[in-house]
Amino acid sequence: MTMASTSTRRGWGFMAPALLWTTAFFVAPFTIMLAMSLASLDGRELIWSLSLDNYHKLFTQPYLTKAIWVSLQITLTVTVISVLLAYPLAWIIAFRVPKRWQRLVLLLSILPFWTSYVVRSYSWLLVMSREGMLNNAMMSLGLISEPLQMASSRFATVTGFVHFFVMLLTLTIFANLVQLSPNYRRAAVDLGASGWQAFRHVILPLTLPGIMVGAFLTFVLCIGDYITPQILGGNNELTVPQVIMMQLGRRGDFPLASAMSLVLMGLVTLAYIATARWLRLDRI
Amino acid sequence: MRVIQWVYLAVAFAFIYLPVASLVLFSLKDGNLPLPPFEGPTLRWYQEVLGDHQLMAALGNSLLVAVFSSLTACTLGFLAAYGLARHVLPGSVFMRGLLIAPMTVSYLIVGLGLLIVFNQLGIGLSLWTAGMGHVVINLPLCFAIIYASMGAQQQNAERAARDLGANEGRVITLVTIPMLAPAILAAFFLAMTLSWDEFVIAFLLTRFDVTLPVEIWSLLRSGLSPKTNAIGSLVFLGSVTVVLLLEIFLFGRRRT
Amino acid sequence: MTASISINGLHHSFGDFHALKDIDLSIDIGEYTVLLGPSGCGKTTLLSILGGFLVPSRGHVMIGDKDMTRVQPAKRPTTTMFQDYALFPHMTLKDNVAFGLRMRGLGKTDRHAKADQFLELVGLRQDGTKRPHELSGGQRQRVALARALAVNPDVLLLDEPLGALDLKLRRSMQDELKAIQREVGTTFVHVTHDQEEAMAIADRIVVMNAGRIEDQGPPDRVYRRPCSLFAANFMGEVNQIPAWRDQGGLETPLGPLPLSHDFGDTEQGVACIRPEQLTTETQEWSLGTATVIDSAFFGAHYRCHLRSDRAPNLTLVAYLPPNAEPKAGSSLPLYADPADVSLFTTPDTQEAIA
């Protein structure tokens, strides 16, 4: 019918700029990256080909294989610890802090979120360095006699990440908890559930989708981050983003960097598949 | 049990504020290393930051890139959301997915992909290229926020306006945009804060003129310095001021 | 301004679902018409077609003497008052009411003067600078009415306009709507599922069911002499008594029904009589005696459930006058005027005989 087709034509008109932008600057680069990952490098000369050499390297070059493992381990550790720390915090803010203070406390708990991302990792370096606040405080309390080596380690990287993601997850989990009708809990307790049982059987399942969305977001942001491991992690072990940046900077090896990037995306896809039944991104 | 909860809250806050506190504290230190013991206070590092032309230029660049990329992302996102929500389109689920897709991809990969394309096309890197990258990452966000807030209430008001004789342009400018203003502003400011603070894409896609995070990054290479603390504290203060103003004037009002 | 409406052979389907079937309807100039029916009967679809929000699969809509079937809402001499009012929340009441005039290119002073006039009409002259969220439900409804009327439509379409109001407010708004319609003279087409609202307000009631028009006419006629069993039921409580042809007359379980006409081609059907038309005073049709099962006092009448002594399976509802004071268990003689009885064949055909 004429009315429907006019509407369709106009609809395309409105969609066109965004679609073109996404196609030109996201889909096309991605496709070229895909082709690039199959190319090879002769000295600094790029040779377009269809070879799986770069992917083969991922398994034969130990430093590449190790980077994948390190990235996965760090990301999973960070995701689990962040959720476990953020849930109680969000819970306390949602249900224990008096209503009139709630918004203020929530705002305060995520305020450092707005520190510059680069500066935040740098701040942890200050706190954890050999002569930093933490060592200083613990020594004057007599807890340790020698300063601990905290910075430039996986511990430092994980701490830096957890700091960031606890704030992010507190926000998402809080939003989830407060939109839950308090009657669910009341009904469960009324039917004889203990506080823990009400949480375990009613509140937790109801907030699980929210947790999973937050966890997936954490995974995506964490596994792709370059700054935190670069500033806090030291030189003992490298993550995938660090390796990618190294290929770009030192060697100009775009084909290998592209292949590593696709591996990174593969890992994100795996995480998506693992959490897909809670995410329902299509509902956004 | 109650006590444990308050203790937990206190410890969590200590953890959250520990780095910010040491950042701000040692930005005031009268010495060359931002580490204990504290001496001072002094404002000389702030003076140094404000007198640093390169840093100030980077700050200006960052604002420029943030404002322009957010405006572009919001405009494209709004148009797409309107088209998708108000018109009958085949394959709308697929297009929605396509527009959201960049959200699940690391900034590093978005940046790398664009870098390869710009290299291949021989396009020189500049603030423009970084801004284009920021539009790519912020467009899905703006689209999703605005699309989610397009409810039945707006649709009915738009229908009433059309019934009273408004053409599509006037429906959009007089009814849709004013009604969606909170969502559009929220999307704009979120995009601003993300673009303003973004490092990897800006690092890969700029060359001579750089944005603030990239400039701070190069400061870091020269080691720990109270000057870095000072610029970090300033950025924190600025962002917090904006966030608080937004909370009070934009989102606070909606509750009443 | 005002205009007549004529709908011919209208048919509309959503995919496999036939929302409207063979609709023919004429509405006179300045008439207040109510489309009445249960949800899903097609009344809102019909209104959307009148407003131009839907193009019918088949058939024509004439407003005045122009074919409007495929004309866009903005180009029609109709305006719609939406169910949720759809007031623009970011504009003052005055700007809301003036919106349609603004779209027609009227200058600010003129359109505000006109808006004031229409706000006056609905009693909100003083509140022109307020915004919709500061108003009560009834006030919002008035603003929506003023906004729709301000552009001087020939036809005003009202989609369940009182649905969001509480009962008391609804009754008083009905009176107001009708008074305003008399004053402006515009043709009103109003959709509702509330039969009391329809009777209170309409010049003409159109009863719809399953995509068809079951009956149409003035409220008293549709109530007293409905054209279909569905219309009889939807317009209010009714007693359905089985009836069949017997030796040239009509027989019921409650005794012979003295009527000169019958079901025509068919042998049997139902005889319908409203509860208030059953009486204990002698009338031409005697229904025998009945036992009161229970009764409830409604102010103007007692509503009683009665079990007929002649046919114990049949429960009747009767509205008896307040002075009757019927007691449960007591026995009453029941009569009715055969002229008040409507005859229908089985519910399948739902065809009126009377």
Radius of gyration of chain C: 24 Å
Number of strand segments of chain B: 0
Give the strand order, joined by hyphens, for the main sheet of chain C. 6-7-8-3-9-10
- Low confidence ranges of chain C: 349-354
Sum up the overall morphology of chain C in one term.
Answer: elongated
For the residues shown, what is the average pLDDT of chain C?
Answer: 89
Percentage of β-strand residues of chain B: under 5%
Question: Briefly, what is this?
Answer:
Chain A contains 12 helices and 2 strands, in the order αββααααααααααα. With 284 residues, chain A is an all-alpha fold.
Written description of the protein model:
Chain A is mostly helical. Chain A has helices spanning 2-36, 53-60, 62-95, 99-109, 117-128, 133-140, 154-178, 182-190, 195-223, 227-232, 240-251, 254-279; strands at 40-42, 45-47. Chain C is an alpha+beta fold and 354 residues long. Chain C contains eight helices and 18 strands. In chain C, helix 2 (93-103) crosses helix 3 (108-121), helix 2 packs parallel to helix 4 (137-150) and helix 3 (108-121) packs across helix 4 (137-150). Chain C starts with a strand and ends in a 9-residue tail after the last strand. The chains are: A mainly alpha (284), B mainly alpha (256), C alpha+beta (354). The interface between A and B is large, with 80 and 89 residues.
Features:
heterotrimer, B: 256 residues, mainly alpha, 11 helices, 78% helix, globular, C: 354 residues, six-stranded mixed sheet, four-stranded antiparallel sheet, 18 strands, disordered C terminus
Helix-strand layout with pairing:
The complex is a heterotrimer of chains A (284), B (256) and C (354).
Chain A: H1 2-36, E1 40-42, E2 45-47, H2 53-60, H3 62-95, H4 99-109, H5 117-128, H6 133-140, H7 154-178, H8 182-190, H9 195-223, H10 227-232, H11 240-251, H12 254-279
Helix pairs in contact in A: 2-3, 3-4, 3-7, 3-9, 7-9, 8-9, 9-12, 11-12
Chain B: H1 2-27, H2 44-50, H3 53-86, H4 92-100, H5 107-121, H6 127-148, H7 152-163, H8 168-197, H9 200-205, H10 212-220, H11 226-255
Helix pairs in contact in B: 1-11, 2-11, 3-6, 3-8, 3-10, 5-6, 6-8, 7-8
Chain C: E1 5-14, E2 17-27, E3 32-36, H1 43-51, E4 58-63, E5 66-67, E6 78-81, H2 93-103, H3 108-121, H4 137-150, E7 155-159, H5 167-184, E8 187-192, H6 195-201, E9 204-209, E10 212-217, H7 219-224, H8 229-234, E11 239-246, E12 249-251, E13 268-273, E14 285-297, E15 302-308, E16 315-320, E17 331-336, E18 342-345
Parallel strand pairs in C: 3-8, 3-9, 6-7, 7-8
Antiparallel strand pairs in C: 1-2, 1-4, 4-5, 9-10, 11-12, 11-13, 13-18, 14-15, 14-17, 15-16
Helix pairs in contact in C: 2-3, 2-4, 3-4
